């Protein structure tokens, strides 16, 4: 990243929605020079400038974009994904969604040889695909670009993280191209973070410890398990399995709770959300006896509640306190990886430090993060993993040469 290295670089690119620079860090491996990076967030721009190159600036990309360069090779876009993500509400009209198409408008204005857009794979389903991805492809193709759309699973890039991302590549160089499927062996969480110890930047386990009730719950969750009242099986620990926090239950009460758990999934009416409340009649039929007395007890104890004419579990908790396994891959590193209520370290009763989250995302330890902790987790979770960027970068070089 020194000036002498930058001067020898051959291909010029700009980075839209650059964040702290995960995408751009991957581009550093080849002969690419970033000549402009843009993001609305002052803190991520500062982190980018300290770690990548001093070319990022605070800019609202929804405004007029007057960047001028006669011979631009590549535009990168890592537009916000919140409105497309299945981890959120998937609001089709989230105002941030339009930024995905805003990047395409900038491409049509700047006319780079290659455009690369990364987003969550949720952008490839339902109305989201029709309203955003299909429109993007049609705009690009009607302006003379060829396009390729793929989903890459980061585990196949040798990473220790399950993260599937949609990659749209557009080019106007007349070449034939398809992004190949990567076929690497996934790393384990142990291999990725098992050697991290004190004295390393952005690694302070005390900041993400489970405290109070959280730590009592965390102690009950073994590797591979999560707190969930809406799933059965060995991977789910229920609130009724943790009497020291949620109160004691007898066998008969636990049988009724388990029955509600199963019926509510079997008889679901909605096709969204986790499942539906159940009627007393269904419960009676399922159990083969009238459970009304036990139901009343469970209401008093706070385990179940009335919902319209039916009953439902008070806490559904689908997937809190997920404790990952050392020898498996991590779930998708998101912006909440520092919360023990959501994610637990394989053996310690805490969440992940910023450094651990960054390692799982493929950032080297020399890349440092700053600002309030919440913001650091956000920039790490939002980043395009540098190994994914590096893979794409190596593949598109042929389009330019
Ligand atoms: C998914 S993150 C980008 C991650 C980045 N490409 C990386 O690899 O680290 C989306 C970014 O879009 C930025 N953003 C949101 N609205 C914006 C706007 N109107 N103009 C510019 N940047 C915006 C956010 O601040 C955030 O950093």
Structural features, described:
- This protein has two domains: 3-187 and 385-400, 3-Layer(aba) Sandwich (Rossmann fold); 229-313, no CATH class.
- Helices cover 33% and strands 15% of the residues.
- It has 14 helices and 13 strands.
- It has helices spanning 3-7, 22-27, 42-51, 98-110, 126-142, 189-193, 213-220, 243-246, 251-266, 280-287, 292-300, 354-360, 373-382, 386-400, and strands at 11-16, 32-39, 56-58, 74-77, 114-120, 146-153, 164-171, 226-227, 236-237, 304-307, 310-313, 322-323, 343-344.
- The strands form four sheets. It has a seven-stranded mixed β-sheet with strand order 3-2-1-4-5-7-6, sandwiched between helices. Strands 8-9 form a two-stranded parallel sheet.
- α4 runs parallel beside α5 (126-142) and α9 (251-266) packs across α10.
- The relative contact order is 0.15.
- S-adenosylmethionine is lined by residues 17-23, 38-41, 44, 60-62, 78, 80-81, 99, 382-384.
């Amino acid at each position: 990243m020194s000036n002498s290295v930058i001067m020898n670089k051959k291909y010029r690119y700009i980075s839209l929605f650059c964040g702290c620079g995960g995408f751009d860090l991957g581009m550093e491996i080849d002969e690419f020079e970033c000549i402009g990076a843009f993001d609305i967030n002052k803190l991520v721009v500062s982190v980018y400038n300290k770690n990548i190159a001093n070319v990022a600036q605070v800019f609202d990309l929804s405004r007029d974009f007057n960047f001028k360069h006669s011979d631009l090779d590549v535009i990168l876009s890592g537009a916000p994904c919140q409105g497309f993500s299945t981890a959120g509400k998937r609001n089709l009209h989230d105002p941030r969604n339009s930024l995905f198409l805003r990047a395409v408008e900038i491409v049509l204005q700047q006319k780079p040889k290659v455009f690369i857009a990364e987003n969550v794979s949720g952008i490839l389903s339902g109305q989201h695909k029709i309203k955003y991805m299909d429109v993007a492809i049609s705009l690009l193709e009607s302006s003379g670009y060829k396009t390729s759309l793929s989903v890459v699973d980061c585990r196949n890039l040798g990473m220790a993280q399950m993260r599937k991302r949609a990659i749209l590549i557009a080019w106007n160089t007349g070449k034939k191209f398809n992004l190949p499927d990567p076929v690497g062996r996934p790393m384990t969480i142990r291999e990725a973070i098992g050697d991290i110890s004190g004295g390393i930047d952005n690694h302070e386990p005390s900041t993400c410890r489970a405290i109070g009730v959280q730590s009592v719950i965390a102690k009950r969750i073994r590797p591979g398990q999560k707190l969930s009242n809406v799933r059965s099986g060995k991977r789910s620990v229920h609130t009724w399995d943790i009497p020291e926090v949620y109160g004691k239950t007898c066998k008969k009460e636990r049988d009724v709770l388990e029955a509600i758990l199963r019926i509510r999934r079997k008889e679901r009416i909605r096709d969204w959300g986790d499942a539906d409340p159940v009627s007393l009649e269904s419960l009676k039929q399922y159990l083969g006896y009238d459970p009304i007395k036990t139901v009343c007890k469970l209401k008093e104890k706070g385990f179940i509640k009335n919902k319209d004419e039916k009953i439902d579990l008070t806490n559904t908790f689908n997937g809190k306190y997920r404790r990952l396994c050392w020898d498996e891959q991590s779930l998708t590193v998101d912006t909440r990886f520092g919360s023990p209520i959501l994610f637990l370290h394989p053996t310690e009763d805490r969440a992940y430090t910023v450094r651990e989250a960054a390692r799982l995302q493929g950032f080297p330890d020399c890349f440092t993060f700053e600002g309030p902790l919440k913001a650091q987790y956000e920039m790490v979770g939002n980043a395009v993993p540098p190994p994914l960027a590096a893979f794409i970068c190596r593949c598109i070089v042929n389009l330019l040469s």
